[in-house]
Amino acid sequence: MSAAPTNNAGPLALEPSEQIIARKFDNCAADLIVNAGIGFGVGVVASVLLFRRRGWPVALATGFGAGVSYSNCNYSLNPYVLPGTKVFKPSA
Prior knowledge:
0% strand; 2 helices; mainly alpha
């Protein structure tokens, strides 16, 4: 059996803000790729099956996917835009 990994910094170690922003940005980029890809696929299927191979359903669905990922990223990076979210000032 192997021992569990230990954290030398202790249980209350804080993550640097640069790493938090980098992690959020990486999640935003991954979300953009996934949502735009799903939108592209839905647009291709809709174009082939419903719209006689026109190009606009592909562009529209890809734009919808990119817009959803932009909105999710905006919520992730800016907590003030979420309705019902209270952001408290840190106590000095």
